[in-house]
Amino acid sequence: MRRAPESEPGSLNIYIVEDDDALRDDFCRAVQTCPRLRLFGATGSAQEALRVLRQRPAIDVLLVDLGLPDGDGTDVIRVMRTELAQAQALVISVFADDRRVLPAFAAGARGYLHQGCE
Protein backbone atom coordinates (compact mmCIF):
# COMPACT_ATOMS: atom_id res chain seq x y z
CA MET A 1 0.00 0.00 0.00
CA ARG A 2 1.29 3.45 -0.88
CA ARG A 3 0.94 6.36 1.52
CA ALA A 4 1.26 10.06 0.84
CA PRO A 5 2.63 12.67 3.22
CA GLU A 6 0.20 14.46 5.53
CA SER A 7 -2.19 16.75 3.70
CA GLU A 8 -3.80 20.11 4.30
CA PRO A 9 -6.82 20.38 6.62
CA GLY A 10 -10.06 19.98 4.70
CA SER A 11 -8.62 17.56 2.16
CA LEU A 12 -10.17 14.17 1.43
CA ASN A 13 -8.30 10.92 2.09
CA ILE A 14 -8.72 8.52 -0.83
CA TYR A 15 -8.13 4.76 -0.69
CA ILE A 16 -8.04 2.83 -3.98
CA VAL A 17 -8.80 -0.88 -4.37
CA GLU A 18 -8.05 -1.91 -7.97
CA ASP A 19 -6.29 -5.09 -9.10
CA ASP A 20 -5.12 -3.80 -12.49
CA ASP A 21 -1.67 -2.32 -11.75
CA ALA A 22 -1.68 0.20 -14.60
CA LEU A 23 -5.19 1.40 -13.86
CA ARG A 24 -4.44 1.63 -10.13
CA ASP A 25 -1.36 3.71 -10.92
CA ASP A 26 -3.46 5.99 -13.15
CA PHE A 27 -5.99 6.53 -10.37
CA CYS A 28 -3.19 7.22 -7.88
CA ARG A 29 -1.62 9.81 -10.18
CA ALA A 30 -5.00 11.46 -10.75
CA VAL A 31 -5.62 11.76 -7.01
CA GLN A 32 -2.14 13.13 -6.41
CA THR A 33 -2.63 15.93 -8.94
CA CYS A 34 -5.49 17.47 -6.97
CA PRO A 35 -4.45 19.58 -3.96
CA ARG A 36 -7.68 18.81 -2.05
CA LEU A 37 -7.18 15.05 -2.34
CA ARG A 38 -4.71 12.91 -0.43
CA LEU A 39 -3.84 9.40 -1.50
CA PHE A 40 -4.22 7.46 1.74
CA GLY A 41 -3.21 4.25 0.01
CA ALA A 42 -3.86 1.76 -2.77
CA THR A 43 -4.02 -2.00 -3.07
CA GLY A 44 -4.97 -4.65 -5.60
CA SER A 45 -6.27 -7.02 -2.95
CA ALA A 46 -9.70 -7.32 -1.33
CA GLN A 47 -8.11 -9.00 1.69
CA GLU A 48 -5.59 -6.18 2.17
CA ALA A 49 -8.38 -3.61 1.83
CA LEU A 50 -10.46 -5.43 4.46
CA ARG A 51 -7.48 -5.53 6.83
CA VAL A 52 -6.92 -1.79 6.42
CA LEU A 53 -10.60 -0.90 6.82
CA ARG A 54 -10.91 -2.92 10.03
CA GLN A 55 -8.23 -0.66 11.55
CA ARG A 56 -10.70 2.25 11.13
CA PRO A 57 -8.37 4.65 9.32
CA ALA A 58 -9.32 8.20 8.38
CA ILE A 59 -10.53 7.36 4.86
CA ASP A 60 -13.12 9.66 3.31
CA VAL A 61 -13.57 8.08 -0.12
CA LEU A 62 -13.06 4.47 -1.19
CA LEU A 63 -12.64 3.78 -4.91
CA VAL A 64 -13.22 0.05 -5.30
CA ASP A 65 -13.28 -2.40 -8.17
CA LEU A 66 -15.90 -5.13 -7.96
CA GLY A 67 -13.93 -7.93 -9.64
CA LEU A 68 -10.91 -8.55 -7.43
CA PRO A 69 -8.84 -11.74 -7.66
CA ASP A 70 -9.19 -12.58 -3.96
CA GLY A 71 -12.69 -11.36 -3.19
CA ASP A 72 -15.64 -9.22 -4.18
CA GLY A 73 -15.48 -5.44 -4.02
CA THR A 74 -19.06 -5.46 -2.70
CA ASP A 75 -17.79 -7.14 0.47
CA VAL A 76 -15.17 -4.40 0.82
CA ILE A 77 -17.91 -1.76 0.55
CA ARG A 78 -20.03 -3.59 3.14
CA VAL A 79 -17.15 -3.63 5.64
CA MET A 80 -16.40 0.03 4.91
CA ARG A 81 -19.99 0.97 5.76
CA THR A 82 -19.69 -0.92 9.07
CA GLU A 83 -16.22 0.28 10.09
CA LEU A 84 -16.13 3.79 8.57
CA ALA A 85 -19.60 5.32 8.71
CA GLN A 86 -18.26 8.68 7.48
CA ALA A 87 -16.66 7.24 4.32
CA GLN A 88 -18.24 7.10 0.88
CA ALA A 89 -17.65 4.37 -1.70
CA LEU A 90 -17.46 4.74 -5.46
CA VAL A 91 -17.36 1.65 -7.65
CA ILE A 92 -14.80 1.57 -10.46
CA SER A 93 -15.52 -1.48 -12.60
CA VAL A 94 -15.87 -2.93 -16.08
CA PHE A 95 -19.03 -4.69 -14.92
CA ALA A 96 -22.23 -2.91 -15.88
CA ASP A 97 -24.84 -5.61 -15.38
CA ASP A 98 -27.52 -5.33 -12.69
CA ARG A 99 -26.35 -8.60 -11.10
CA ARG A 100 -23.04 -6.94 -10.09
CA VAL A 101 -23.91 -3.25 -9.81
CA LEU A 102 -27.14 -3.35 -7.77
CA PRO A 103 -25.62 -5.35 -4.88
CA ALA A 104 -22.80 -2.79 -4.68
CA PHE A 105 -25.35 0.00 -4.24
CA ALA A 106 -27.28 -2.09 -1.71
CA ALA A 107 -24.00 -2.53 0.21
CA GLY A 108 -23.54 1.24 0.38
CA ALA A 109 -21.86 2.45 -2.82
CA ARG A 110 -22.75 6.07 -3.61
CA GLY A 111 -21.64 6.12 -7.24
CA TYR A 112 -20.37 4.08 -10.13
CA LEU A 113 -17.63 4.78 -12.68
CA HIS A 114 -17.79 2.40 -15.61
CA GLN A 115 -14.43 1.37 -17.08
CA GLY A 116 -15.94 0.85 -20.50
CA CYS A 117 -14.10 0.25 -23.72
CA GLU A 118 -13.84 2.96 -26.35
Automatic annotation (TrEMBL):
Species this protein is from: Roseateles paludis
Source taxon at top rank: Bacteria
Pfam family, one: Response_reg
Modified residues (4-aspartylphosphate): 65
Protein's UniProt name: Response regulator transcription factor
Record InterPro entries: CheY-like_superfamily, NreC/VraR/RcsB-like_REC, Sig_transdc_resp-reg_receiver, WalR-like
Residue stretches making up the Response regulatory domain: 13-118
UniProtKB keywords: DNA-binding, Phosphoprotein
